[in-house]
Amino acid sequence: MTGAEVLDVAREGVITFLKVASPLMLIALAVGVVISLVQALTQIQEQTLVYVPKIIVVGLALILLLPFMGDALAAYMDQIAARIAAGV
């Protein structure tokens, strides 16, 4: 396996990671910003208030996005298995 092929595999791995992780991270970021805005507007300074809604929303998003995430990971695994089978 040449250096270029290793870089291709690594690049595809990073792209797959971003496809899988970024939707959940963006949703968690949006929920955190909304909760922080509500806290700032109402002057409620409870630190644990952020965690419960974020956990619930990220859990629901995970359930909804799991098929997409599984497809992305399966496609990457197929590419890796094809490279292994080809002996490259």
TrEMBL record:
InterPro entries, per database record: Bac_export_3, FliQ
A Pfam family assignment: Bac_export_3
Annotated transmembrane regions: 20-41, 48-69
Membrane topology: Multi-pass membrane protein
Keywords recorded for this protein, A-Z: Bacterial flagellum, Cell membrane, Cell projection, Cilium, Flagellum, Membrane, Transmembrane, Transmembrane helix
Compartments where located: Cell membrane; Bacterial flagellum basal body
Name listed for the protein in its UniProt record: Flagellar biosynthetic protein FliQ
Gene: fliQ
